[in-house]
Structures are given as C-alpha cells and as structure tokens.
C-alpha cells in the first residue's frame, strides 16, 4: 500500500520535486502548499506525509505541543477512509500537526485499512510532539511488536525508560523486543549443522539433554539442531526452553536469559519458569556487577571510572527494582504465603526501603520457620530508621527465643550490641558481646571490643 515517488502521477512528481527544493530553502509554507494535494490524492505516499508533518511542525512552532481533542472538526462517518484522512490533513493537521486525538483517529483508520506503516506514522507523530507521553509510546511499542518490527519496539521502550526509569513494563518489554530482534537478525540455523542429528529420535535427544556428562561439542551439535527446529516453529515452547537450557549449559548466560524471557511470554503462567528467569537474571547481573567492581578496583584512576561507578549504581538500582517487582508479583498471586512475604520484605530491605519492608516482615513472623529471621531483619529495619528502642525490643525478643549459641544467635547478639551502643548503654552492649566471646573468640571484632573494655 506504500506509494513511492515513481508511482505518483507525473503532475504530482513535479510538485514533489518543487516541495523538496522548498524544504532545502526552509520555505515551510510552500512545502505545505505543495505536498498537501499530493498526500490528499495518494494516501500511501508516506515520504510525502512525513515531510508535510515536519513542515507543519516548523510552521506551528517547531515541535510545540498542541491540543488533545479534534477541536471543531467532526469527521463524517459517511466518507470513506481516504476522504476522512484528507479532511483531517486540511482541517486539523495543517494547524495542529501533533494533535493527539486526530493522530489516534488516524491510527485507527490506518489499522482498519490494513496499513500498519501509516498507523506507525500516526503514533510516531504523537511521540514527536509529546515526548513525555509514555502511554502513547507503550501503544507504539506494542504496535511495532505486533507488526514484527522488534528493533523499533526496543528503541521505543528505551525511550519510555528515559522518561520513567522505573517503568517495569517497559523494562520487560525492552528485553522481550531485544530477544525478538536477536532471533530475527542473528541468522541462527546455518546449513553447517543442518543434518547434524536429523536421524536421531526425539526420545534419544531428550535423553541426551538430560545427561549431565555431555561434552561441549555434543551440546553445540544438539543446539544447532534445536535452532533448526526453532526456526521452523518459533512458538513451540518445548523447543524454546530446550534452546535456553543449552545456552545456559554452554555458559552463554545473556542469550539463555533472552530465550527464557521469550519462553515466559509463551506461557506467562509457568511458575517454575518465572523462577528460573529470576534466578538467571540475577546471575547475569551478578556477572556485570563483578565486572564493574573489578574494573573500578583495578584501575580507580581511569578517565571513565566515574561513568563505571554510575553504571554500577544504575545496575544495582535496576536490579533492586526488578527483584521488588518480582517479589510483589509472587505475593499478589499468593498473599497468604508468609515465605513470599519474607522475600518481599528482604527485597525492600536490600533496596533501602525500610518502611516498606516492615509490614511484610511483621507478617512473615507468623511462619515458625522464618520467625527469627524476620525478627532479626525487623530489628535491622528499625535500626536503619534510627528507631533504636524498637530495634532493641525486636533483637532481645529474638535472642530470648534462641536457646543455642549458633550462628543465628551470634548474629542477633552482635546486632543487639551495636544498637545498645548507639543508645549509649555501653554496659548492656558489652554484656551482649561477652555472650558471643564466651562461645566464639574469633567472631568478627568481638574479642577486641571485649578485651579493650578491661584496659
């Protein structure tokens, strides 16, 4: 449906050439006058419509944001789509090119006409005039995914994250789009391995995959055939999961995560798969964190070291946001599961969100297996909020319930000693440290602190 310059009637080709000359000279009013009749007569001439909208934007204010509604323009339901679009060009877009309501209507008409490129243009126009409108950008990204343009979808999701770095839907959407883009562009399934295992039965393949002693060559060969199967049926979740597993075994964690994420889009209700994705995402981010930390420690005076530190901080922030989001999702699915409440409280604590952690940990206390851990973390939350009297109460409660001097009790007593010292009660703080000292002389700095009190 797209019309090229060569497809235009000769009179419109001449007009188009004049419009291009006017554009070079920045005579935007002339551009509008010359291009408007071309696009009115040729709905599919997108190059012309793009130049027209650009000229209209320059005349109207160079990207200035305009109204949301259609103003006084009332499109007629009796006109065919091409006529309605022509009316909108003349009566709305000429004065208000970034009008949200009109561009949304153009999108709807284009989709009814089965003209997805024109629909993309309509939403891109809103994006150009209203760059803070993330709702429109979400719609645009989903549109690009639907028409098999994942590269543009990924770029759009990144645009959303620039506006709102905490948009979890955009984070996930960008990963899914990047995965689809890699699938589309990397050309997996070359002929080199095409017949590598074609005679093997499916049962034999599954048995081979379950075997832990597979050599690297065997896994690569198996992966090559699995890629061939995937290319033939990209919606087969069994094949996608098998390919993800093979990439993970081969140590290609980021690629494995990309395909596990894609598998999750095929079966969003798979709890085990969701957990697998979370675990693998943590591994990938751990690797990145270690890499940045190593670079910072090895060469702290490097010219780009501040950028490295900023990137490391952003990775940690994003990781904390994802961990919290995942934990909240699990709690929403199973609100009575106290173990999940504890995980959410722990995620909040690790992100420094101590107030948010408190109610989750208070609920987790009712689980006998998690009670002491929850009380200990509650004490730490209170201490971080400088609510030291409440921290003392929680830690003393945990200490009384722990009858054996194990690792947990030593941890509780050590935290309690620190809180008591902050509160100025040095005698009680020293008593807590002495309990540890009597059982474990080498625990942290307990020996030094206890012995220095006698000198």
* Count of β-strands: 0
| Total DSSP helices | 22
Contiguous uncertain segments of 5+ residues: 62-73, 186-200
SSE string: HHHHHHHHHHHHHHHHHHHHHH
The share of residues in extended strands comes to: under 5%
The biggest beta sheet reads:
none
Q: Please give the alpha-carbon distance between the first and last residues.
A: 90 Å
Radius of gyration: 31 Å
SSE blueprint:
Elements: H1 10-24, H2 28-41, H3 46-60, H4 81-93, H5 100-112, H6 116-129, H7 134-146, H8 150-163, H9 168-185, H10 202-210, H11 216-232, H12 237-249, H13 253-266, H14 271-298, H15 305-333, H16 338-350, H17 354-364, H18 371-384, H19 388-401, H20 407-422, H21 426-439, H22 446-452
Helix pairs in contact: 1-2, 2-3, 2-4, 3-6, 4-5, 5-6, 6-7, 7-8, 8-9, 9-13, 11-12, 12-13, 13-14, 14-15, 15-16, 16-17, 17-18, 18-19, 18-20, 19-20, 20-21, 21-22
Please provide a written account of the structure.
By secondary structure, this protein is mostly helical. 72% of the residues lie in helices and 0% in strands. The protein has 22 helices and no strands. It has helices at residues 10-24, 28-41, 46-60, 81-93, 100-112, 116-129, 134-146, 150-163, 168-185, 202-210, 216-232, 237-249, 253-266, 271-298, 305-333, 338-350, 354-364, 371-384, 388-401, 407-422, 426-439, 446-452. The chain is elongated.
């Amino acid at each position: 449906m797209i019309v090229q310059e060569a497809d235009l009637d000769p009179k419109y080709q001449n007009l188009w050439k004049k419009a291009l000359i006017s554009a070079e000279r920045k005579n935007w009013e002339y551009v509008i006058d010359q291009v408007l009749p071309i696009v009115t007569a040729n709905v599919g001439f997108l190059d012309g419509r793009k130049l027209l909208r650009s000229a209209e934007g320059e005349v109207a204010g160079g990207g200035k944001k305009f109204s949301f509604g259609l103003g006084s323009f009332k499109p007629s339901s009796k006109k065919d789509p091409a006529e309605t679009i022509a009316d909108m060009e003349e009566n709305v877009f000429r004065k208000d090119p970034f009008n949200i309501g009109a561009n949304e209507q153009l999108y709807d008409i284009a989709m009814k006409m089965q003209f997805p490129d024109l629909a993309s243009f309509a939403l891109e126009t809103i994006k150009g005039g209203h760059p803070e409108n993330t709702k429109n950008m979400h719609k645009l990204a989903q549109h690009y995914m639907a028409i098999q343009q994942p590269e543009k979808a990924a770029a759009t999701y990144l645009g959303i994250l620039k506006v709102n770095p905490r948009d979890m839907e955009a984070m996930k959407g960008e990963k899914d789009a990047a995965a689809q883009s890699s699938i589309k562009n990397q050309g997996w399934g070359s002929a080199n391995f095409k017949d590598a295992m074609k005679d093997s039965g499916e049962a034999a393949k599954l048995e081979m995959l379950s075997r832990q002693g597979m050599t690297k060559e065997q896994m690569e060969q198996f992966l090559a055939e699995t890629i061939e199967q995937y290319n033939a049926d990209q919606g087969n979740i069994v094949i996608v999961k098998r390919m993800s597993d093979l990439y993970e075994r081969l140590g290609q964690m980021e690629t494995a995560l990309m395909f596990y994420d894609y598998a999750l889009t095929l079966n969003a209700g798979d709890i085990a798969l969701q957990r697998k994705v979370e675990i693998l995402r943590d591994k990938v981010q751990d690797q990145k964190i270690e890499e940045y930390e190593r670079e910072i420690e090895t060469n702290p005076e490097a010219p780009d070291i501040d950028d490295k530190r900023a990137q490391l901080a952003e990775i940690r922030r994003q990781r904390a946001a994802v961990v919290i989001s995942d934990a909240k999702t699990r709690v929403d699915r199973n609100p009575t599961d106290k173990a999940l409440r504890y995980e959410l409280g722990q995620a909040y604590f690790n992100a420094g969100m101590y107030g948010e952690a408190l109610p989750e940990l208070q609920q987790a206390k009712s689980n006998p297996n998690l009670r002491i851990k929850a009380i200990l973390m509650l004490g730490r939350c209170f201490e971080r909020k400088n609510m030291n009297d409440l921290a003392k109460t929680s830690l003393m409660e945990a200490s009384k319930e722990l009858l054996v001097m194990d690792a947990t009790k030593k941890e509780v007593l050590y935290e309690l000693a620190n809180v008591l010292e902050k509160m100025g009660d040095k005698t009680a703080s020293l008593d807590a440290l002495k309990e540890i000292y009597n059982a474990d002389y080498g625990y942290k700095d307990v020996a030094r602190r206890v012995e220095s009190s006698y000198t």
